[in-house]
Write a structure and sequence with these properties.
Number of helices: 2
Number of strands: 2
Strand order of the largest sheet: 1-2
Largest sheet: 2 strands, antiparallel
Strand content: 5-15%
Radius of gyration: 21 Å
Shape: elongated
Order of helices and strands: EEHH
Distance between the termini: 72 Å
Structural class: alpha+beta
């Protein structure tokens, strides 16, 4: 006879870009060198709440269809960034008032600084963006090398 087995199912969904979500420098928290620490001002939106509810409902339906019993469901969204790597802390764009880096991943305010991690991407969907990040890094490195060769940095 089968034992008292359990299955835990967890779903992830894409977080849509939200211009109200921000990463800021703290005015009160500093590291041991006196450098301000990052402060996250991030909230889930209506899309994420609806998606979370749908993920929970679909999970219950899938488990029920396979014959599971005593199904317990939670529709509580975890803290942003708790389980997946959110992106967009330094979004890419041509307008410095609305973005942090340009198309070459250079900071608008300091063109000798390149940001080539997920911060430059507004969203990664729910897939692994590693190859895209590697391509962006290679392109930014090529741009930086070209700038050094041409004395532009």
């Amino acid at each position: 006879m089968p034992g008292p087995w359990q299955i835990y199912m967890l779903g992830f969904g894409e977080v849509l870009p939200n211009p109200d979500n921000r990463v800021l420098l703290s005015e009160t928290a500093f590291d041991r060198f006196g450098i301000p620490q990052a402060r996250f001002d991030v909230q889930w939106g209506e899309n994420e709440a609806r998606m979370g509810a749908d993920i929970a409902q679909q999970g219950v339906a899938m488990l029920g269809a396979m014959g599971a019993t005593d199904i317990v469901s939670e529709e509580v969204l975890g803290a942003p960034g708790r389980a997946i790597h959110e992106m967009g802390g330094a979004c890419m764009g041509e307008n410095p008032a609305q973005s942090v880096v340009n198309r070459w991943n250079q900071l608008h305010v300091a063109p000798n600084v390149f940001v080539t991690d997920g911060a430059a991407m507004s969203s990664g969907s729910c897939v692994n963006p590693t190859l895209t990040l590697m391509a962006m890094t290679a392109r930014a490195a090529d741009r930086a090398a070209d700038m050094v060769r041409n004395d532009a940095i």
